């Protein structure tokens, strides 16, 4: 029966090329936008180079201190000392890395100034993250203990700083902010949409201007805690939270008296969205309002337009409907037939949208709009796209099918 419905839908498509074009154009354009958006969200929140281990990582990005009246608050990254005491010493994780938010520095090639994003890290950073080393290797604990002036640079900075990019640069000198460093490794860069690993130059945390010796709880550092397995995430989170709960309260930080202290170890997506939702009721309203508006514009309006097209298309088949009703076809069967037909048409539009999405993603990746962009149609994106096709087909097919089911047999046969 299902195969017969699909055959009927195909013949109907061939019968009315104009309606077919309008229908498939609307479906494919809408689904293309949704697929590209889904791919970008996966690019933003999923586990991709060099953060391939996000599925078993917890991120400690922010400390929040509130006063006793809960009207005042301080928030921001933590000190290296705090993370060393409360994260680095955890017993349950496989590894813990501490690193800074990216900073700004300058390098000069002749009279040309190169603006750099820089990051200070420990040696474990290179074990938690999966950077591809094009040359050399990362700095080690020995380099850090010795206070060595070494750096790991990206291939992008290499192209800007060195004249001959075809020659190896490991062992060569780079001057940044008037200080000379030896290049120990060159990595493939990370896109700016991954702020944890995005930088042009990576320094050991003992390098000048890192402020790693700052006392107190707050500073300029963050941490990623790598669990041994995804199943260990809850235990790791509980161990970290247990240590945070033992911090003496109240306290004073830079003149601010706080009665509550919050520092969470969370998966990346929770951390990313949590920082938005923690901005207060106003920001929450704006955030969810934007999401609702985008979904309505991308899914609701096209579905409404497609409903109108489908109603016109179905009404042209009124005589067919009348004959089938006259021969005893139940309403449920007729409704189901038209819903299946519409889902089939939607999936045809989805196939076209998939091809268009691959083209758009290729253009984005190769355009340079986002350096090192690596948008893809992976399994997650594909499955979400299939779900969107199904929902879209149902949204645009149920109402016309119900409208059709209410047709009177006599009126239908007159059409």
Automatic annotation (TrEMBL):
Q: Which organism is it from?
A: Spirosoma endophyticum
Give the record's GO CC terms.
plasma membrane
Broad class of where this protein is predominantly found: membrane
List the transmembrane segments.
Answer: 21-41, 286-307, 334-361, 381-402
Question: How is this protein named in the record?
Answer: Putative ABC transport system permease protein
Q: Name one Pfam family in it.
A: FtsX
InterPro entries for this protein? ABC3_permease_C, MacB_PCD, Macrolide_Exporter_MacB
Residues in domain MacB-like periplasmic core?
Answer: 20-241
Task: Say which domain of life the source belongs to.
Answer: Bacteria
List the PANTHER family hit by this protein, alphabetically: ABC-TYPE MACROLIDE FAMILY EXPORT SYSTEM PERMEASE COMPONENT 2, MEMBRANE COMPONENT OF TRANSPORTER-RELATED
Q: Which UniProt key words apply to this protein?
A: Cell membrane, Membrane, Transmembrane, Transmembrane helix
Q: Where in the cell is it found?
A: Cell membrane
Q: Does the keyword Transmembrane apply?
A: yes
Per the record, membrane topology reads: Multi-pass membrane protein
Residue stretches making up the ABC3 transporter permease C-terminal domain: 293-409
Q: Does the keyword Flavoprotein apply?
A: no
GO molecular-function annotation terms? Answer: transmembrane transporter activity
């Amino acid at each position: 029966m299902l195969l017969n419905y699909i055959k009927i839908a195909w013949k109907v498509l061939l019968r009315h090329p104009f309606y077919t074009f309008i229908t498939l154009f609307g479906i494919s354009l809408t689904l293309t936008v949704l697929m590209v958006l889904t791919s970008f969200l996966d690019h933003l929140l999923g586990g991709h180079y060099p953060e391939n281990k996000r599925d078993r990582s917890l991120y400690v990005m922010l400390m929040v201190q509130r006063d006793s009246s809960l009207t005042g608050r301080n928030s921001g990254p933590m000190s290296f000392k705090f993370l060393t005491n409360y994260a680095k010493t955890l017993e349950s994780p496989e590894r813990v890395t501490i690193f800074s938010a990216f900073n700004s520095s300058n390098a000069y090639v002749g009279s040309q100034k190169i603006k750099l994003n820089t990051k200070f890290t420990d040696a474990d950073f290179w074990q938690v993250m999966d950077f591809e080393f094009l040359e050399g290797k990362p700095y080690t604990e020995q380099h850090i203990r010795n206070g060595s002036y070494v750096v790991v640079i990206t291939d992008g900075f290499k192209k800007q700083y060195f004249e001959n990019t075809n020659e190896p640069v490991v062992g060569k000198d780079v001057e940044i902010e008037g200080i000379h460093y030896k290049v120990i490794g060159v990595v493939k860069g990370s896109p700016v949409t991954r702020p944890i690993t995005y930088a042009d130059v990576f320094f050991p945390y003992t390098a000048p201007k890192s402020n790693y010796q700052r006392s107190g709880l707050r500073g300029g550092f963050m941490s990623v805690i790598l669990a041994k397995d995804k199943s260990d995430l809850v235990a790791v989170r509980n161990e970290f939270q247990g240590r945070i709960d033992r911090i003496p309260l109240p306290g004073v930080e830079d003149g601010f008296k706080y009665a509550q202290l919050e520092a969470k170890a969370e998966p990346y997506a929770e951390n990313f969205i949590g920082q938005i939702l923690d901005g207060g009721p106003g920001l929450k309203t704006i955030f969810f309002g934007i999401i609702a508006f985008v979904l309505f514009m991308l899914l609701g309006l096209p579905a409404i337009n497609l409903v109108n097209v489908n109603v016109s298309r179905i009404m042209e088949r009124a005589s067919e409907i009348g004959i089938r009703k006259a021969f005893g076809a139940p309403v449920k069967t007729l409704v189901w037939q038209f819903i299946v037909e519409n889902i089939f048409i939607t999936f045809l539009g989805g196939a076209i949208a998939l091809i268009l999405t691959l083209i758009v993603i290729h253009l984005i990746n190769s355009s340079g709009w986002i350096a090192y962009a690596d948008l893809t149609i992976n399994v997650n994106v594909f499955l979400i796209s299939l779900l969107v096709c199904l929902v879209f087909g149902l949204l645009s097919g149920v109402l016309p099918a119900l409208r059709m089911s209410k047709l009177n047999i006599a009126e239908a046969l007159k059409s």
